[in-house]
Amino acid sequence: xxxxxxxxxxxxxxxxxxxxxxxxxxxxxxxxxxxxxxxxxxxxxxxxxxxxxxxxxxxxxxxxxxxxxxxxxxxxxxxxxxxxxxxxxxxxxxxxxxxxxxxxxxxx
Length: 108
Description:
By secondary structure, the chain is an all-alpha fold. It has helices at residues 2-45, 53-104. It contains two helices and no strands.
């Protein structure tokens, strides 16, 4: 019975791991897009007078994008911590499964 439980647990953890890796990938892609947007705003902002309303509006948008980028960084760090925890638990489940197999097929 322990073998089945360990195998099901390992499969469940593997699925969670894949889900977190996918979320990290999405955040990475989103951050790259945000970085490009911030760079574009910087380039456009250089064409205007520093005191113009357009420049101030662009600076506000740039600040909002940077805040969003920081939030994405925090979310990605949380996902990475959870991923490390799942990886550790997955190794434990695999060891438990291997131990169950070894006990089931050992001759006494």
